[in-house]
Specification:
CATH architecture of the largest domain: Roll
Oligomer: single chain
InterPro entries: Glyas_Bleomycin-R_OHBP_Dase (IPR029068), Glyas_Fos-R_dOase_dom (IPR004360), VOC_core (IPR037523)
Structural class: alpha/beta
Pfam family, one: Glyoxalase
Number of helices: 3
Radius of gyration: 16 Å
CATH class of the largest domain: Alpha Beta
Protein name: VOC family protein
Distance between the termini: 32 Å
Shape: globular
Strand content: 25-35%
CATH superfamily of the largest domain: 2,3-Dihydroxybiphenyl 1,2-Dioxygenase, domain 1
Domain VOC: 4-125
Number of domains: 2
CATH topology of the largest domain: 2,3-Dihydroxybiphenyl 1,2-Dioxygenase, domain 1
Number of strands: 8
């Protein structure tokens, strides 16, 4: 298997609210059926699907709580961009988990939760860039 992630699907409690949240962050929505939403992510997709339906599809319980054991990350080109995107996420309805700050590994990062409690890290790594460059 070639290592890559083609799509991340999040099980959400309120699909229209989740769609609005991610559209407010500027995620480009693709055409999709009314029971699911897809967004392009520069080489991968983000899917939003009803939590119960996603659990049923995977044949697992939809019950869950606490820390899910992972976080999604969005790397940015500067500390100022981290602060800017954090403000945008909070304005869209995200919950602040960790204020952006200098971190032990020499970078700058903070965390928010989306409407369904999924953790997102916003980070600037001055030692390596992971993402598209404008230049």
């Amino acid at each position: 298997m070639k290592p890559r992630i083609s799509m991340i699907t999040l099980g959400v409690r309120d699909l229209p609210a989740a769609i609005h949240f991610y559209e407010s962050l500027g995620f480009p929505r693709m055409e999709s059926p009314p029971t699911v939403a897809f967004f392009t992510l520069n080489g991968t997709w983000l899917g939003l699907y009803g939590r119960e339906a996603l659990a049923e599809d995977a044949q697992v319980s939809a019950e869950g709580g606490g820390f899910p054991g992972f976080a999604l990350a969005h790397n940015l080109a500067s500390e100022a961009e981290v602060d800017q995107v954090m403000a945008q996420a909070l304005a869209a309805g995200a919950t602040l988990v960790k204020t952006p700050q200098k971190v032990f590994w020499g970078g700058y990062s903070g965390y928010f939760k989306d409407l369904d409690g999924y953790l997102w890290e916003l980070a600037h790594n001055p030692f390596a860039w992971i993402g598209p460059r404008d230049d």
